[in-house]
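Q: I'm building a small set of examples for a reading group on sequence design. Run inverse folding on the following structure and report the sequence directly after it, with nothing in between.
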């Protein structure tokens, strides 16, 4: 009996070992197959992402390109005849890039299956930007110099040559479509650029009119014929309850800034004279010139806490008047826009120095205007400049009511979707 029992035990162990060995072999084979399939699936997905990036590169080189780019792999290669394609089109008016792979792969059974991966990219065409994103922008510098003592907090851009004498300070990046020019005999550019500078970039075109302001003033705002005087008054300590008094000839008009029927825009077809303290949001426009006859201040000038915001928009010039109120410093809170003219000081080259011209906001002008004269680095007439950017305006969607914007062909990725699907035979 002992011999038979021993034989049964040996045969049992042999059967168990054979079964375990077969299962281990099957598991090992399946593990190798799964690893291989995982590698193939990862490769298929990575190819879809790569094709999307290749198409993006092609598109950014030529943003008018619409079409399909295809890459086919040789039959004898690692991918055994697979292909990728990426296409850019505008379904429903929306700009979309779609990348797709079709990669053959050997299954564990020895049969051939196909792996497919998709990447879709939605491109947003942001065609307009507010001019208020600049602390300072000019179309032409008009030979006017930045000098020692001048300081700008915020982005600076010019479509023309920037003239530098001494060491003005720029706290944000300075860009120009042209170059820099130093005063003859003064050596290399000595400006202090806290965030660097860049030359030769694309110019930014000013609009052909101020129709955005005109349209708003005639539809929900206030539109006045001829010259007007605008005086700003704060309300109570509460926000947005200030008011404006407009004098047009013999007529006198009072506008409550929190009036639900007022869209925040007023326009004069002639000269517009402005002064006072603003409590609310307002854009004042002129089809001629805007004259600043005294300080223009926000009731709350604490940035970014305040919600006061002013736009001063002239089809021609924005001018700091030469009068008693402005001969000992002048302070302006607001975004200044002179479409065909300049931001300048009246009679800037005569008389004695007038102190410092301070602007909290932004300045955009076609032809740079002077606000003072200097000799040997010292102010002789007019103003020194202290221009501080209103950092709230760095958000393209934050601007005074109906404030002008500019067109720039920019594209940003608004959505990126990757489809990673396990095949039906995945184990």
């Amino acid at each position: 009996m002992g011999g038979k029992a021993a034989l049964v035990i040996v045969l049992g162990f042999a059967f168990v070992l054979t079964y375990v060995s077969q299962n281990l072999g099957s598991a090992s084979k399946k593990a190798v197959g799964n690893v291989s399939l995982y590698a193939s699936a990862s490769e298929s997905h990575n190819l879809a992402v790569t094709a999307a990036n290749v198409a993006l590169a092609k598109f950014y080189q030529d943003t008018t390109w619409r079409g399909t780019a295809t890459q086919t792999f040789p039959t004898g290669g690692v991918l055994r005849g697979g292909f990728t394609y990426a296409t850019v089109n505008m379904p429903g008016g929306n700009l979309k890039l779609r990348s797709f792979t079709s990669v053959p792969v050997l299954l564990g059974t020895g049969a051939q299956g196909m792996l497919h991966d998709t990447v879709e990219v939605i491109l947003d065409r942001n065609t307009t930007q507010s001019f208020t994103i600049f602390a300072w922008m000019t179309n032409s510098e008009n030979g006017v110099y930045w000098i020692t003592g001048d300081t700008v907090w915020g982005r600076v851009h010019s479509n023309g040559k920037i003239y530098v004498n001494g060491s003005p300070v720029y706290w944000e990046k300075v860009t120009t479509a042209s170059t820099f020019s130093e005063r003859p005999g003064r050596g290399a550019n000595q400006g202090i650029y806290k965030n660097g500078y860049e030359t030769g970039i694309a110019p930014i075109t000013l609009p052909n009119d101020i129709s955005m302001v005109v349209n708003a003033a005639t539809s929900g705002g206030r539109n006045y014929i001829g010259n007007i005087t605008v005086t700003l008054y704060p309300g109570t300590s509460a926000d947005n309850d200030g008011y404006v008094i407009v004098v047009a000839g013999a007529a006198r008009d009072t506008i409550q800034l929190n009036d639900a029927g007022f869209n925040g825009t007023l326009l004069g077809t002639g000269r517009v004279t402005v002064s006072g303290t603003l409590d609310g949001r307002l854009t004042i426009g002129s089809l001629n010139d805007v004259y600043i006859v005294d300080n223009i201040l926000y009731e709350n000038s604490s940035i970014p806490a305040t919600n006061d915001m002013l736009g001063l928009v002239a089809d021609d010039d924005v001018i700091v008047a030469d009068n008693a109120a402005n001969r000992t410093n002048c302070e302006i809170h607001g975004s200044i826009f002179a479409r065909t003219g300049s931001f300048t000081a009246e009679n800037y080259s005569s008389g004695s120095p007038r102190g410092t011209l301070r602007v909290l906001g932004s300045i955009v002008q076609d032809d740079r205007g002077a606000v003072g004269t200097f000799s040997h680095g010292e102010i002789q007439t007019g103003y020194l400049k202290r221009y501080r950017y209103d950092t709230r305006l760095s958000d393209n969607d934050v601007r005074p009511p109906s404030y002008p914007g500019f067109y720039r062909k920019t594209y940003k990725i608004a959505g990126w979707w990757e489809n990673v699907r396990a095949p039906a035979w995945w184990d």
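The CA atoms of residues 128 and 407 lie 5 Å apart.
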